[in-house]
Design brief:
- There is one protein chain.
- With 791 residues, the protein is α/β, with parallel strands linked by helices.
- A hairpin with a 2-residue loop joins β26 and β27.
- The relative contact order is 0.10.
């Protein structure tokens, strides 16, 4: 893009500039007019770019292969070349954030002592055999000490100095199989005030190890967020802080501990990126005894769990999609099929309308992957897929649609989940390998077209959090309530008409961990001292505040979790405490074992005395669960409906999925005039069949009511400009050397079309007078050009 001439830029200009002010002004004006004669339009500025609807992350400087024209470019890494990488994206019209790994990264200068003169090699996460747990080659996952937090603050300062608008601390992850390093043992002694215990020696040691891992990364994130907030106070800027994180379900299934729901209580945390993609969603699970990949259904539940991070909190979340994935051994057909499934699942969450459209665009548009049927041959992205991906990316900018409506099975059903799902994944007594304590309760309903939503147990204390739910399922098999205070809102919700199904046989060995429900002394509760302030280099002390409440966080605690109450209890299981809050004594609870309903206020409680993993093991177990949920729905006065599809309307868009392993019956047909945004040709379809396994992202042409030309879809960034009736102009830009298509609603046939001032061949566009649609095709370029339709 041409830049204005700086007449004071240097001696070379002064040699040729007349001394007269008149000639000076004349020369500058002449220079600008000469440039304008052959100039390209400025980088297209979308008037809604400040909403930061879409983003992508990249570790590189600007390149044509990554020019997705999203609202935000997230520059990855806090190395010394960060400022120039930031500037390269800013010069091309992007808002710029910075992301770095919270648990790992190219942090060799910290490990080898160049940062502060002391080696930190013992802070690498280590398994029981003394092996470091590596992210890549010589890059270990870290046990986050306060010194490590200071190192990350120094790197974040580099981003702040370079003008980053937001900081993303990615993936605060502590492996369940870790917990043996010298650094972790030291943190154990500081946190618990006693000698370290090897995690695999007892369920209590494993639980306490996980609880400490959870706390350590929460502490480190708060340390850095406080550092950024202190910077904001000193400078008057408003640099935001986000946490890109996998879903709770994926972390539990992959045996990783991360702060998850407690992130909502971090002071200075503005939101999250929900990292759900093919790589997480293709993890197999069990349904009717069959273990296999169920990418769509798993993604639907993962995105739903991620929504728990912001539901009723007012914070921001982006949903990640990835047109490929980390595993480079799949074919383009595999990537495309699974990307369509995860993207459809993300669009079926109507409360979210921001998206990270690709984590690494260079590996999508410049990558080579195995050919279908011939893995020895590696191919670049197929042109049709490049067009499809860009069409979808640009449509995602338009998903903030207030009018939404479901067509599906029974809604209003939720499944309670807790961060402690991550605490029971280690030996001895690990929960079900395939997380069937969750999927065994969720999949039978989802497969019947019911949009069941994970509900974060730790957040039920948030006002109005349970609004909209009529039936909730709960099992303490594989997880435990981290604080007794979560039971009171559940009791209140039931008393006001909700129906709670408790699916639990009290057989989980983690019922025996020393926790709030079974210790009168509560001897593992918080200590009486706060952590010492952390001091950055030459900066004020950074304290660890608790959720913005101005209260120092105590060691040994996680807010609204461990040790939240000083009262001691003496129950064999946390379920007993919950039932007591319902007013059910042991005898009355025992009478519920056959699935009978107990009346509590205006609501009901049902106890299904089963291990959910057992229900997932067979069709018979699934049928038993469905019978119970159907009974609960009737008691809650909600209509029971089963469908073999999910369908959601969002303004002029319709998102739909046909379900396999579902009920029988006729296939759902959608009649009308539709454009499938997964179709690179953007053809008009009058019938859409929701066959099993089908995925659709549709634009409803019947919803287009305007008479003037309107942009409907484009495989490039297309920014309309004001027209005069005789023409319609868009500024277009896309990934270089990929096929573009622009679809317009056009009230009449165009006289001609020009691109960058050159007329397009008549074969490059097609007009349908019956549909009032105009298709325009051309090759994308990674620079802005004017596309003008003349009437």
């Amino acid at each position: 893009m041409p830049q204005p001439l700086d007449c004071a830029a240097g001696p070379a200009y002064k040699l040729f500039m007349p001394k007269s002010p008149f000639w000076l002004v004349f020369a500058v004006l002449l220079w600008r007019s000469l440039l304008a004669a052959g100039a390209e339009p400025e980088v297209p500025r979308d008037p809604l770019q400040n909403l930061e609807r879409t983003c992508f992350q990249t570790s590189h400087a600007y390149s044509d292969a990554a020019d997705l024209r999203s609202d935000v470019a997230i520059v990855y890494g806090i190395d010394r070349r960060l400022p120039e990488r930031i500037q390269s994206w800013r010069e091309h019209g992007y808002r710029v954030h910075v992301m770095t790994g919270a648990a790992w990264g190219n942090y060799r200068e910290y490990l080898d002592g160049r940062f502060d003169g002391a080696s930190h090699d013992d802070e690498a996460q280590t398994d029981r055999d003394g092996n470091k747990i590596l992210h890549n080659r010589d890059i270990p996952y870290m046990c986050p000490t306060e010194g490590y937090g200071k190192f990350l603050c120094a790197g974040v300062q580099r981003a702040l100095d370079a003008g980053a608008e937001a900081i993303h601390l990615e993936e605060p992850e502590f492996w369940v199989r870790a917990g043996y390093s010298k650094a972790f043992q030291k943190e154990w002694r500081s946190y618990y005030g006693e000698d370290w215990q090897s995690p695999e020696t007892s369920v209590d040691a494993q639980w306490r190890s996980a609880k400490l891992k959870y706390y350590l990364y929460r502490r480190t994130l708060q340390q850095i967020f406080n550092y950024v907030q202190d910077y904001n106070r000193r400078t008057g800027r408003h640099v935001r802080c986000y946490v890109p994180t996998h879903s709770l379900l994926n972390y539990a299934q992959w045996h990783i501990v991360s702060p998850e729901s407690s992130l909502a209580r971090l002071a200075g945390c503005d939101g999250y990126i929900a990292q759900v993609w093919t790589g997480t969603a293709r993890t197999p699970n069990v349904f009717r005894g069959q273990l296999r990949e169920r990418t769509f259904e798993t993604a639907f539940l993962e995105y739903g769990a991620a929504q728990n991070l912001v539901r009723a909190t007012g914070r921001t979340v982006w949903y990640l999609n990835d047109p490929v994935e980390d595993n480079p051994r799949h074919s383009w057909d595999d990537y495309r099929r699974n990307w369509e499934s995860t993207l459809t699942a993300s669009l079926l969450q109507p409360e979210v309308w921001r998206y990270e459209v690709s984590p690494w665009p260079e590996r999508v548009f410049a990558g080579h992957y195995p050919a279908a049927g011939n893995p020895e041959v590696r191919e670049p992205i197929p042109p049709a897929y490049a067009t499809e991906v860009q069409t979808v990316i640009n449509s995602l900018n338009d998903m903030n649609q207030p009018a939404v409506a479901w067509d599906c099975g029974t809604a209003g059903i939720g499944l309670l989940v807790s961060d402690s799902l991550m605490f029971e994944r280690g030996e001895p007594g690990s929960s079900d390998l395939h997380l069937s304590n969750v999927y065994g309760l969720a999949l039978p309903l989802l497969k019947r077209g019911m949009p069941i939503a994970p509900v974060q147990l730790e957040n039920v204390t948030v006002p109005n959090y349970l609004d909209g739910f009529r039936v909730l399922l709960l099992s303490y098999h594989g997880m435990k309530p981290l604080d007794p205070r979560v039971h009171a809102p559940l009791v209140d919700w039931v008393k006001h008409g909700g129906v709670l199904i408790v699916c639990d046989d009290d057989g989980d060995p983690y019922n025996r961990v020393h926790e709030w429900w079974n210790s009168d002394e509560n001897r593992r509760g918080p200590s009486t001292t706060s952590p010492s302030p952390l001091t950055g280099e030459g900066r004020p002390a950074v304290s660890l505040s608790n959720g913005g409440e101005g209260v120092a966080e105590k060691k040994g605690t996680v807010p609204l979790s461990v040790g939240g109450s000083r009262k001691g209890y003496n129950y064999a299981t946390p379920r007993e405490h919950l039932f007591e809050q319902f007013g059910l004594n042991a005898t009355e609870a025992a009478s519920l074992q056959e699935g009978k309903l107990a009346t509590v206020g205006n609501g009901r409680v049902i106890w299904l005395r089963e291990d959910p993993a057992g229900l997932a093991a067979s069709a018979k177990g699934e049928a038993r669960l469905i019978e119970t949920v159907k009974k609960a729905a009737a008691s809650a006065s909600i209509a029971w409906r089963e469908t073999n599809f999910l369908l959601l309307r969002r303004g002029p868009y319709v998102i739909a999925a046909g379900l396999d392993e579902s009920i029988g019956g006729e296939t759902k047909l959608l009649l009308g005039r539709w454009i499938n945004l997964f179709d690179p040709e953007l053809r008009v379809q009058e019938t859409i069949e929701l066959a099993p396994g089908s995925r659709y992202f549709l634009r409803d042409l019947m919803a287009t009511k305007v008479a003037a030309p309107q942009l409907l879809a484009s495989a490039c960034k297309a920014v309309p400009r004001e027209g005069d009736g005789a023409s319609f102009t868009l500024t277009v830009e896309g990934v270089g050397d990929t096929p573009a298509i622009v679809l317009l609603h056009s009230p009449k046939e165009p006289r001609s079309i020009t691109l960058a001032g050159q007329p397009l061949d008549s074969k490059s566009f097609k007009y349908s007078s019956g549909d009032h649609l105009l298709w325009i095709r051309f090759a994308n370029q990674a620079k802005p050009r004017e596309l003008v339709v003349l009437y």
